[in-house]
């Protein structure tokens, strides 16, 4: 017997271009879940699953879809397997969130959900995160982002702290100009009201006739041609090293990164440069930030990076990174000075204000 709608678990797709703040928003939801049990599926682009590593404090199960972009899957069987696990009676989830890769075609994910044989789930809506600071440039390069926004049920205009009032208003207008009828909320660091995911915007009470996409909508909206998918123009490079990186060489690499290299994320081990911390690294467009965190006692010390861009020379980037490794590192003054270059970009996790600069 098919469970009643109220018994079905809503599955929300969390989408948004590379680096827009999906993982940050997801972590915010997990920290402020008000007793709700949230299952998470992370779909990462790039062979090291950085996002799965950065989703903190999970409740219930987390499964990661691993390398590659889910929207390329010819059928939904892989996703269905994960959903079966998450909807098992013992797991008792209230909502499942699928964090799509920054290059995924969200409509494809939604189509897979609608086509799923799993009768314990229902489609819970599409949330599109928009980086308010990068959107004008990204939209110009990728007009197809308009299609993603049009398909969304909720648009989160994120990184409001990085833009002025008039810039934010312009982005808001650009979102409306795509023809989107979605609710728009503004946020810094993804701090939206978690209730938005459950109720009322995406919840069971809303008037589904108004916005929830039908299969026909999706077929019409979805570029049938795989060539038009965002990720076809992008390439990812994974880099992993047990040898620490030299801070000076690595910063020189970052400072001269090619324009097409839009996104870098991962963790860096600077070895004797800072033996106590691993450095989470995020670069999005022209933005760069490090967040140090103490190594845990049994943690294997490694650098793990994923670089994503278009028109990049993967082999050359890999070589340049390999040249940043420092086999014979000593705690010298030069190394300490090299770390200053890194510390200039250090931020507190999720933008929490750091200690004041002075008295
Ligand atoms: N200034 C500012 N930075 C933010 C905000 N939200 C997220 N970030 C930062 O933006 C970077 C990317 O955030 P993520 O949450 O990893 O973005 P993502 O969309 O999951 O990235 P991909 O999975 O690579 O597509 C991180 O350094 C975040 O700390 C915000 O509202 N303001």
Automatic annotation (TrEMBL):
InterPro entries: CobW-likC_sf, CobW-like_C, CobW/HypB/UreG_nucleotide-bd, P-loop_NTPase, Zinc-reg_GTPase_activator. One of its GO terms (cellular component) is cytoplasm. Residues 234-325 form the CobW C-terminal domain. Pfam families: cobW, CobW_C. One of its GO terms (molecular function) is hydrolase activity. CDD domains: CobW-like (cd03112). Keywords: Chaperone, Hydrolase, Nucleotide-binding. It catalyses: GTP + H2O = GDP + phosphate + H(+). The keyword Hydrolase applies. Transmembrane segments: none annotated. PANTHER family: COBW DOMAIN-CONTAINING PROTEIN, COBW-RELATED. Belongs to the SIMIBI class G3E GTPase family. ZNG1 subfamily. This is GTP-binding protein. It comes from Streptomyces nitrosporeus. The lineage of its organism: Bacteria, Bacillati, Actinomycetota, Actinomycetes, Kitasatosporales.
